[in-house]
Design brief:
- The complex is a heterodimer of chains A (335) and B (501).
- In chain A, 37% of the residues lie in helices and 19% in strands.
- Chain A is α/β, with parallel strands linked by helices.
- Chain A contains 11 helices and 11 strands.
- The longest helix of chain B has 33 residues.
- Chain B starts with 6 loop residues before the first helix and ends with a helix.
- Chain B has one domain.
- Classes of the chains: A alpha/beta (335), B mainly alpha (501).
- At the A-B interface, α1, α2, α3, β7 and α7 of A face α2, α3, β1, α18 and α24 of B.
């Protein structure tokens, strides 16, 4: 009983704190007011859900009332969904001010792939954005229904070779990690599958569960939750995953699909943000992502976390850009 | 009968307090245009970080239930549906208010919501396994036909001329194609960056319903300084409303059955549950011409349907992790954050939390009705507001509500432009409901058609016409069109006969 009423008090306090952002003490140095973080996907999706968890400690204070990260200024999530993230990111690079108070969440490979396939209508690319830190990495896994005749990747590849363009593969959307993984599988195994983009990861999962498509690429975290009803054939990463230690990587199976499709999520700023501000963020944000409470919540939610510093993300962006430019060179849309 | 053991948990003081506040807050949020149930639940997720799992789910469930019902309040009183699910409610709810029967309409709204809601939750408690199997059978082909079935009722939904209804519906379908193609990513009809994100359903909803209302109010206020032109507000006892409401068995049954069925189908959403239920009730009524002019059955069917949807929409969520509605999708986040993974474990390992949550939905329905009926009493204040004040308040709510959906000024402009055009269209007899329905169904139809085509490959014909569910829904579509033609011809004949005499 006691713990329950305490939890209630806590949550009411949290609500009050949440509503009185503006009352924070003014400190001369950055940041001295709340920071907004634009999420280019709808509320409740995996990106939004994780962004809310990893930023929840931003406004917190320790037991002595001292701010822990970022002067105790909260990060406020603003959802701007539309067109697979293009609306939110386009608006971000066109309208936000490079002052460090307007940040955005990124999804790699999505935004990089979009900037390659649609070089005109997409206004963002790795050159006008600055990475701050990465919080998570969700590898794509190849899944089939529990009742599927395919028991291994080889079964699927054999069938696809005998029946070109007959194997349907669902994924969350166009030019997202799942699509990249499917393109890579086609190229590496010398087959032609038919990719079916759906309105998001959960919808794509439903297509596999309901037998609408023969197979699917999906987020490891979502597939993991439904593993009772699925066969998870392989993981598109360099190493096996702690959540699914029995699932082999494509490389182990002799199929050259690397980790290019892994869905990296993190926070970025605009190019032109003052260097000292970038330094503060690059210093404090990864520490915040590693906070014990954040890690525990991510673990509970089945979301694989992978914290990377600014330097590591810069390198990862460049590698992805080079690889995707090659993979997608035949797919440019609006030239 | 396991669920009975856990009712005690719901009434534990801390949980019950959260349930009460969640319900009241949900009613108020729901009554604010633009704050849809999906938004309300998403906004509250961060506050659950500090709560224990049962308490946080109770809060989210209570808000879900109450916002769906609360959306009818602004719809009935000022003709702005709080959320897409409430469109059908205002077709008769607002005319009732204009005749001075606002309190009565609100009574029916909350009583029917309660009855539909309880039926929906009972289905969730007793029939989860078979319903989950049913939910999985709905792929793109089945959803495509369900959407087509929705299209067949567009013309008859607005009241008035069928031809004008069809034109409005076609314009709505066209509006739905603006922006990026949802499957293939191509841009269409994007003349300005403001349209890049497409036309958001909530922005269109607020614009099409609220702006014509504001302009009409302003027009009226310029000529007279009178109060809003409502007939003298008749007070109506709650008990009389109860007796009448429960006697409308046919409307309640149609509403609850249609709402529950559509709730189970992942992706169809409550937006069309109310409209389909309303249409069926109208068609089966002895006097279909009374609908659209303040017929209580319209309110009863629509509201029982959109709350009946709540329980079944949780079936695929709790068993498979697949949300049956956009709001259930946000609720999934709430489950995961508490370490509750959808699947069989929920009902065994986490039985206490899960059943407490489901029980709280039942109790929440009752609280929602009680608080709703209390709010209904104050509706009299809204109807006494002078016209110019009302117009100003509605426009503020409209702009605020539209902007808050996705923090977009473009949405506000789309809302104002659509609304202004609608004002002129309404003066020549067009109504907004078929337009919004077209917009909603256009997206559903197109997405599922394209996905179906991609899955089907060469044999698209075989894919879309295979399977018992497809065949049943196709027959329903044909019957729906046939009935519309038949009744329209009957009306023309009657009109001719009248003119002859």
């Amino acid at each position: 009983m006691m713990s329950k009423s305490r939890a209630l008090t806590k949550s009411l306090v949290a609500a009050v704190v949440g509503l009185s952002f503006c009352a924070g003490a003014a400190i001369a140095e950055y940041p001295d007011r709340p920071i907004t973080v634009v999420v280019s996907y709808g509320a409740g999706g995996a990106t939004d859900f994780q962004a809310r968890i990893v930023t929840m400690m931003s406004g917190m204070e320790d037991k002595d009332g001292k701010p822990v990260y970022l002067n105790g200024q909260p990060m406020v999530i603003v959802n701007r969904p539309g067109a697979g993230g293009q609306v939110g990111w386009n608006k971000y690079v066109e309208q936000a001010k490079p002052d460090g108070y307007e940040l955005a969440a990124y999804n790699v490979p999505h935004f990089i792939a979009q900037s390659i396939v649609f070089p005109k209508k997409v206004k963002y690319n790795i050159d006008n954005l600055e990475p701050i830190a990465n919080w998570g990495a969700d590898p794509a896994v190849l899944i089939v229904n529990k009742d599927s005749p395919f028991n291994s990747v080889q079964d699927l590849v054999d069938y696809a070779k005998a029946n070109p363009e007959k194997v349907t593969v669902s994924g969350a959307g166009l030019y997202v990690g799942h699509h990249i993984a499917d393109l890579q599988l086609d190229k590496a195994a010398g087959i032609k599958t038919k990719y079916v983009p759906s309105g998001g990861g959960v919808k794509a999962l439903q297509f596999v569960l309901g037998g609408q498509t023969m197979a699917g690429f999906n987020n490891l975290s979502d597939a993991y939750r439904s593993r009772d009803r699925l066969k998870i054939l392989a993981i598109a990463d360099l190493e096996r995953n702690e959540f699914l230690p029995d699932v082999p990587t494509f490389k182990e199976l002799g199929i050259d699909v690397d980790d290019s499709s892994v869905n990296f999520r993190g926070i970025m700023a605009l190019k032109g943000t003052p260097e000292p501000v970038i330094q503060v963020l690059a210093d404090k944000v990864p520490a915040m992502f590693k906070d014990k409470k954040v890690v525990a919540k991510m673990q509970e939610g089945g979301s694989p976390s992978r914290v990377m510093t600014r330097e590591q993300v810069q390198k990862m962006w460049k590698e992805r850009q080079a690889y995707l430019a090659d993979l997608l060179k035949d797919l440019r849309k609006d030239e | 009968m396991e669920f009975i053991h856990y009712f005690g948990e719901v009434f534990a003081p801390a949980n019950f307090l959260i349930l009460v506040f969640g319900t009241i807050g949900g009613l108020l949020l729901g009554a604010t245009p633009g704050l849809s149930p999906t938004m309300a639940v998403a906004l509250l997720i961060p506050f659950t970080f500090q709560m224990d799992p049962a308490a946080s789910l109770i809060m989210l469930g209570a808000v879900y239930t109450a916002t769906v019902a609360g959306g009818a309040v602004s719809g009935i009183l000022v003709n702005i549906p709080g959320a897409p699910a409430n469109i059908a409610t205002i077709l008769d709810g607002h005319p009732m208010a204009k005749k001075g029967r606002a309190t009565e309409a609100l009574h029916y709204c909350f009583i029917s919501s309660f009855i539909g809601g309880v039926i929906g939750v009972l289905l969730l408690i007793f029939f989860t396994p078979p319903l989950a199997e049913l939910a999985l059978r709905f792929g793109p082909a089945e959803l495509f036909w369900i959407a087509i079935f929705g299209v067949t009722i567009i013309a008859s939904i607005g009241g008035g001329s069928v031809v004008k209804g069809l034109i409005a519906g076609a314009v709505g379908l066209w509006l739905s194609t603006i922006g990026y193609n949802p499957v293939l990513g191509e841009e269409r009809f994007v003349f300005t960056d403001h349209l890049a994100g497409g036309i958001h359903v909530i922005a269109a909803l607020i614009g099409l319903f609220a702006i014509p209302e504001v302009l009409t109010l302003v027009g009226g206020a310029a000529t007279s300084r009178s109060k809003v032109e409502y007939a003298e507000l008749s007070t109506h006892s709650v008990w009389r409303s109860f007796a009448y409401n429960i006697s409308r068995v046919k409307a309640l049954t149609i509403g609850s059955v249609v709402g529950s069925f559509i709730g189970v189908i992942p992706g169809a959403g409550g937006q069309i549950a109310g409209l389909v239920a309303y249409d069926q009730t109208k068609k089966m009524s002895r006097d279909p011409s009374a609908f659209g002019k303040g017929e209580p059955d319209g309110v009863i069917a629509a509201e029982s349907a959109n709350n009946a949807m709540v329980g079944p929409s949780l079936v695929p969520l709790l068993t498979l992790g697949i949300p049956g509605s956009p709001t259930a999708a946000v609720l999934l986040g709430g489950l995961l954050i508490n370490g509750l993974f959808p699947g069989p474990d929920l009902f065994t390992v986490h039985a206490k939390v899960t059943w407490t949550f489901i029980d709280s939905l039942l109790v929440g329905q009752l609280l929602m009705m009680i608080f709703g009926l209390m709010i209904a009493r104050y509706s009299v204040f809204v109807t006494r507001v002078p016209k110019h004040t009302m117009a100003a308040a509605v426009i503020v709510l409209a702009v605020f509500g539209t902007y808050s959906v996705q923090n977009s000024v473009s949405d506000v402009m789309v809302m104002l432009v659509l609304g202004t055009l609608m004002y002129f269209a309404s003066r020549i007899g067009f109504s907004a409901a078929p337009l919004v329905l077209g917009l909603i169904l256009g997206q559903l139809t197109e997405t599922n058609f394209l996905q179906g085509r991609m899955i089907a490959g060469d044999d698209a014909w075989g894919y879309f016409f295979a399977g018992p569910i497809n065949k049943i829904v196709i027959v329903m579509c044909v019957l729906s069109v046939a009935y519309s033609v038949y009744s329209e011809r009957g009306q023309i004949r009657r009109r001719r006969a009248q003119e002859a005499t």
